[in-house]
Amino acid sequence: RHYRIAVIPGDGIGKEVVPEGVRLLEAAAEKFGFRLDLQHHTFGSCDYYAEHGTMLPANWKELLTPTDAIFFGAVGWPATVPDHVSLWGSLLQFRREFDQYVNLRPVRLMPGVPCPLAGREPGDIDFYVVRENTEGEYSSVGGTMYPGTEREIVIQETVMSRHGVDRILKFAFDLAQSRPKKHLTSATKSNGIAITMPYWDQRVEAMGERYPDVRRDKYHIDILTAHFVLNPDRFDVVVGSNLFGDILSDLGPACTGTIGIAPSANINPEGRFPSLFEPVHGSAPDIAGKGIANPVGQIWTAAMMLEHLGEVDAAHAIVAAIETALREPASRTRDLKGTATTREAADAVLRAFAAA
Amino acid sequence: RHYRIAVIPGDGIGKEVVPEGVRLLEAAAEKFGFRLDLQHHTFGSCDYYAEHGTMLPANWKELLTPTDAIFFGAVGWPATVPDHVSLWGSLLQFRREFDQYVNLRPVRLMPGVPCPLAGREPGDIDFYVVRENTEGEYSSVGGTMYPGTEREIVIQETVMSRHGVDRILKFAFDLAQSRPKKHLTSATKSNGIAITMPYWDQRVEAMGERYPDVRRDKYHIDILTAHFVLNPDRFDVVVGSNLFGDILSDLGPACTGTIGIAPSANINPEGRFPSLFEPVHGSAPDIAGKGIANPVGQIWTAAMMLEHLGEVDAAHAIVAAIETALREPASRTRDLKGTATTREAADAVLRAFAAA
Ligand SMILES: CC(C)[C@H](C(=O)O)[C@@H](O)C(=O)O
Ligand SMILES: CC(C)[C@H](C(=O)O)[C@@H](O)C(=O)O
């Protein structure tokens, strides 16, 4: 087994945690007997932009298409490049042009992670957020009337296609069907967003009829965020549009202690294009350069990538090592009320991985 | 002092909690020496819709315009009328046609309310969500291409005007300036929603320059929801678009224990039209008819309405009575882990109000 992986650290703490993820990947290759061909790229970062005036080289598709997966850190450095420029010029372009229409994000309360919710134990919270990743509210369609005047009007279009909605729902229902609870929750806002969201509801109903064994319910996004805090044990698979999935997949990890440990997969399920793996957290300019970022999100991301590539045993071994490491207060970073540096926290996971 | 108030209970638990709010209003009128002329309306409910085929009579504007305020319960009964029909036919129409462009929602951890967040005490959480209430993501502009086919495409437009954005920002900055912390947080998503949201950011910057004494920051909505859970003590005034404000003003009250106690004001600050006061919670079909809904949200709403009308002492006395009542486990409803009925919980507030 031999995998070609593009490594794109990006900006801020992306540059600090990606190398730690790579160490785990390399240890896993050695222990489980597969080969990794890692191709390191500096593009996709605002440094690259400062030099070249674009986030990516013109031939980025040629460079990345032949890879088996993309191991991504985080992009964004608003002090020098506006976020919408850096993100639409990199991550959001990958998602769209590589048709990574599934954004899959586990939400799990891990042993050893102090939970911000009162009285919750590991095992109580364990679900997936399935986020549509290519259309919806993240459109680049729209514009401005009367720019710069008192009469200024700015319009942006949310676009949902049957193609786009049905395929993400199918993925989510399949996932729900494969799990013991077989329960799917749809995030909607059809009472207020009165054109696209009733359409979303209608497609959920239609798809649901093909999965009679999957129990389904729906909540408006406002009260759904409330339930994440009040009843997180209620969920199994939660499916949402691009924006709602984005919100829920930060909120979910926050409810389980920190977004610093949460991984995500941007998947092209058909395998026509490489899938992209990144932690849920961003480039975090406020703590960048200090060596205190939590590397666990990036390391768990490495596990998700290996699972996707078929290295299931290696993936499980990494997650088990994360659990072992997190039990030790000394290996927790600041976001987990610990004092470990990025390097120390990653060392602890590596030690647990080697020892298992 | 003499106030004309339209009373619209609406659907579900709206019909159960509005009478309790009215009891407090009447007690306050008697105690503080003002007169209330209450005009009860059955319209705005799905029962009315079943009979008339519309949510409101044709002359609703004539009926409501001369009032001093609207005391509203909750609308929605999806079993018989789709939510977007009932809401766009009532509440959302009031907000728009009465130009109630400010939706103001306090988030406060009350003594006696079990907090779902670990280790938080009353006093730790005390901020306002200021929500734009007339434009943005809640538009009725858009439509469907190729309906009913595989090629179906559904489009909905988010519309922001300088007029609409600037006036809500001005309200929020004024509010922040009037508070001791003088701190304004803007909810954005300019990294993903790349047309309207960068515009929002730009107007926040421009308005901020007129308030040099107000400290301002901004967070993307995804990480902002995480901070509501992890660092709720960080906020003072949080301003958001129609959708983001909607989400944050359910999530905030959930973080302080229950949305069952949270009030809200839909304000036309110029006073050209009546303002509308309603609890944050909805019609809650799942618990309707059982007499177990929490009346505190509606009662606190009564206090917000009186404050708006200038009856500040009466308003404060009601809030104080709520605090007293909530300290007693016996006067807490089920959402607060108590066993009190709607009526018992309201009785407790009334007793505290009378005794003070
Ligand atoms: C019922 C619904 C349309 C409404 C809204 O989204 O504005 C409600 O959630 C609210 O917050 O007042
Ligand atoms: C950086 C940003 C554009 C991105 C998104 O909103 O998709 C991020 O928040 C995420 O969740 O991956």
Automatic annotation (TrEMBL), chains A, B:
Classification via SUPFAM superfamilies: Isocitrate/Isopropylmalate dehydrogenase-like
TM segment ranges: none
Reactions catalysed: tartrate + NAD(+) = 2-hydroxy-3-oxosuccinate + NADH + H(+); (2R,3R)-tartrate + NAD(+) = 2-hydroxy-3-oxosuccinate + NADH + H(+); (2R,3R)-tartrate + H(+) = (R)-glycerate + CO2; (R)-malate + NAD(+) = pyruvate + CO2 + NADH
Cofactor requirements of the protein: Mg(2+); Mn(2+); K(+)
Stored InterPro entries: ICDH/IPMDH, IsoCit/isopropylmalate_DH_CS, IsoPropMal-DH-like_dom, TTC_DH
EC number: 1.1.1.83, 1.1.1.93, 4.1.1.73
Keyword terms of this UniProt record: Manganese, Metal-binding, NAD, Oxidoreductase
Pfam family, one: Iso_dh
Domain (Isopropylmalate dehydrogenase-like) ranges: 4-349
Pathway listed: Carbohydrate acid metabolism; tartrate degradation; 2-hydroxy-3-oxosuccinate from meso-tartrate: step 1/1; Carbohydrate acid metabolism; tartrate degradation; 2-hydroxy-3-oxosuccinate from L-tartrate: step 1/1; Carbohydrate acid metabolism; tartrate degradation; D-glycerate from L-tartrate: step 1/1
PROSITE patterns: IDH_IMDH
NCBIfam families named among the record's database cross-references: TTC (TIGR02089)
Entry similarity comment: Belongs to the isocitrate and isopropylmalate dehydrogenases family.
Function according to Swiss-Prot or TrEMBL: Has multiple catalytic activities. Apart from catalyzing the oxidation of (+)-tartrate to oxaloglycolate, also converts meso-tartrate to D-glycerate and catalyzes the oxidative decarboxylation of D-malate to pyruvate.
PANTHER family on file: D-MALATE DEHYDROGENASE [DECARBOXYLATING] (PTHR43275:SF1)
Entry protein name: D-malate dehydrogenase [decarboxylating]
